[in-house]
Amino acid sequence: MLSAATDTVDDMQRGIEHAMGDATRPQGSGPRLIAHVCNDAGGWGRGFVLALSKRWPEPEAAFRAWYRDRADSGFALGAVQFVPVGEDIVVANMVGQHGYGPHPEDDPPVRYAAIASALAAVGEKARELSASVHMPRIGCGLAGGRWERIEPLIVEHLVRRDVPVTVYDLA
C-alpha cells in the first residue's frame, strides 16, 4: 500500500495506462492477461462477465466448473483461475466479491483484501508470462467498490512489480 509521503496520486497513476475501449480487446501485442472480479456465490450473468462470455465461452465454463467443484478446487475469496482464450490471451477470474445483488451502501459485496490477494497472484503470473495486464475498473461496478481503494492495490501488486497495466473505460 502507499506508505511514504512521497507517494502521490501522480506516483500511483504512473505505470497505469488508461484507455477508452473494451477490455476484452486488449491493446498491444505479446502475452496479455485480462483481469476481472467474480463473486463467491457462483453467479455469472451481469456486468463485465457478459462481455467476456460474448467473446469467449471458456472463462464462464471454467468458472462454473471451478465453483461447482469448490470443495476441492481451491475456489474461495482471493483465489484466481487463469483461463487461456487465445494464443497470447489469458483471462484471470479473480474471486473478489462476496455474494451479489442488492446491498446496503455501507456493506457492498466488494472484498478489498480478496482483490489484493488475487492481484498478487495475477502479478506473479504476469511476470512468469512476461505479460501485460488489462482490466475494466475492477470491483467498482456491481461489486460496489471505490476506485480510490482499488487503484492503490493495482499499483502495489502490479505496477511496483514492473507489470504493465491498462485500465479500460467504455466509450
UniProtKB/TrEMBL annotation:
InterPro entries in the record: ADP-ribose_metab_enzymes, Macro_dom, Macro_dom-like
SUPFAM superfamilies: Macro domain-like
SMART domains listed in its UniProt record: A1pp
Domain Macro stretches: 3-171
Transmembrane segments: none
N-terminal signal peptide: none
The reaction(s) this protein catalyses: an N-(ADP-alpha-D-ribosyl)-thymidine in DNA + H2O = a thymidine in DNA + ADP-D-ribose
Record-linked PANTHER family: ADP-RIBOSE GLYCOHYDROLASE OARD1, PROTEIN C6ORF130
Name of the protein described by the UniProt record: Macro domain-containing protein
